[in-house]
Design goal:
44% of the residues lie in helices and 24% in strands. It is of the alpha/beta class.
Length: 292
């Protein structure tokens, strides 16, 4: 039953086998055995993905509830004897994954030391896709878009700033106008990152286009962009908390952009209409209680 649910969620025998740490033939045999027991075909194997048959969709609804109840039963016994165990499997964008979540996970484990955590860091779009596919139970992302398969909850906030080299001609001023950036060598985050999504939205709100920027580089991590700014390659818009240490040491200057407070929100996501594990549910509530 678990193998069947994993195949439905992953839309692939191969990916389901990888998630379960089993061989693909073993997963296929589990499905054949289940179909033989029920006397019904549960999955259609299309060219690019595996989808449930009408009977398979019906069975998946009940099977997923049974597996969830099983997890809850095990969790209830653990709670009864005073032990909360399990693993939280979640993903995050770069900023919350680097500067916010590690401290929260550490505090959570002080209360529940038997819990382990897997935290995968990638772009917001990638994390959201992995949550949709069932590879991750929870995600924290730096932008929100129209994805009906996810539940979104605003949980943290951050402020963006313009990061420049200390010797840059803007370093001595407190702020610059947004339109002034259009003529300056600019270092972009990669497509799919929450920071880039926010920058694009701010530009649109001011009648400008992201494509108007004089892009000199596109870099896939905040740490690498900071190094590029310190090397004098160009300027960039980054999280204030990400550049705080470099600003304190005088390696980067952080400027305001006009009178506009470039605030961004982070969102806690999980797949809609899919119950998360009891351990993940505990951590979800913990994050909501400690949101700011």
């Amino acid at each position: 039953m678990d193998a069947f649910c994993k195949v439905v969620e992953c839309k692939s025998f191969t990916r389901a086998a990888e998630r379960m740490l089993l061989s693909q033939p073993t997963v296929s045999e589990h499905i054949r055995s289940l179909e033989g027991e029920l006397g019904q075909k549960l999955l259609d194997r299309l060219s690019k993905e595996v989808v449930p048959t009408p009977v398979g969709k019906l069975f998946y609804g009940y099977a997923s509830k049974i597996l969830q109840t099983q997890q809850e039963a095990i969790q209830a016994v653990d709670e009864f004897i005073g032990v909360l165990t399990g693993r939280i499997v979640m993903g995050s964008g770069t900023i919350p994954g680097t500067y916010i979540l590690p401290q929260l996970i550490a505090r959570f484990r002080i209360m529940y030391p038997a819990i382990k955590a897997t935290l995968k860091i990638s772009s917001s779009r990638t994390i959201a896709q992995k949550v949709l596919e069932g590879e991750l139970e929870l995600g924290v992302v730096g932008a929100k878009w129209n994805e009906k398969g996810l539940e979104w909850r605003e949980i943290f906030s951050d402020e963006l700033c313009l990061a420049v080299h200390p010797a840059h001609h803007w370093a001595s001023v407190g702020s610059v106008k947004l339109e002034t950036l259009l003529g300056e060598p600019f270092i972009m985050r990669e497509f799919g990152s929450g920071t880039r999504e926010v920058i694009k939205k701010i530009f649109v709100e001011h009648g400008l286009k992201e494509s108007d920027l004089e892009e000199v580089a596109e870099i896939g991590s905040t740490a690498a962009i900071k190094e590029a700014v310190k090397a004098g390659i160009g300027v960039s818009i980054l999280s204030r908390c990400a550049v705080a240490d470099d600003v304190a040491c005088g390696r980067i200057k952080a400027l305001d952009i006009g009178n506009h407070v470039m605030k961004r929100n982070f969102y806690l996501i999980h797949r809609r209409r899919r119950a998360i594990s009891p351990v993940a549910s505990f951590f979800y509530d913990y994050l909501c209680e400690h949101s700011k």
